[in-house]
Please model this.
Amino acid sequence: MKRTKKIFLVVLLLVSQFCFGQDQDKAIRLLVIGNSFSGNATAYLPNLAKERHKQLVIGKAEVGGCSLQQHWEYAEAAEANPDDPKGKPYNGKSLRMLLLEGPWDVVTIQQYSYLSADLDSYSPYAEKLYNYIKALQPKTRIILHQNWAYRSDAKKFGRVAAKQLAKNQTEMWQKSRAAYHAVAKQLNLDIIPVGDAFNRVASGTEYVYKKDPAFDDENAVYPNLPDQVNSLNMGYYWKDKKLVFDPNHANEAGRYLGSLVWYAFLFKESPEKIQYVPDNVPAGFAAYLRQTAAKTVQF
Model:
């Protein structure tokens, strides 16, 4: 009897380990509906997942500068005429086609950054997209991806209401955050808080970005650039010997932070153990960004 009981326990343990391992190895299938900001925020997500031996499949429905309204209008065009190229902006595919490539475990949506702080811009398109996704993928989990505010030295900030722009980075973040949370409450959705993580850095002290007062962008001479240490945004750079200023999109550090937040949210695991660091992100800053992501995402 003792021998039989011992064999039974060993078999039970092996079966449990096998089943647990199978569940752990199950791939998360993720479809991202967004624009360049979602592309920025997930840029290094595959690298992080690979390092931590996580299985991840990512589908993309991204168009630069695309709002919730535009995504919905593309879907409407495809429904009205499946052959209409206007309804297939995602590398020749419609949203219906991409959704039916599922099943998808997670589908994310987001607002265009310029409109993110304007709650009225979400209606009725967030709900229409939600219902459309659920009709085609009823078991999927729909999540909001929260954008970040533009860098503190941006020439202008996102819209908070019709014909009214945010006065600064803080107001853009506050109004954007409020809008995302209002939509999340309406549709009962969770939020990937990338915008909150960016704000933690922007409102901190140790690694906060500060505008270089000595740099005169109107009289800049190639290849001179301002001190942009600790920036999460592209900022100033030269392209074909012409000075470009992009205070909106994420640079390597911002993409890293966004990807860390996505990783922590999707896999319910602290990103502080991650060793991968993109080029041009200093080790100390990278460690701070990992800590920031861990503090921002609540399991």
User: Anything to note?
Assistant: The chain has one domain: 25-204+249-296. Confidence is low (pLDDT under 50) at residues 4-24. The CA atoms of residues 45 and 189 lie 22 Å apart. The longest strand covers residues 242-250.
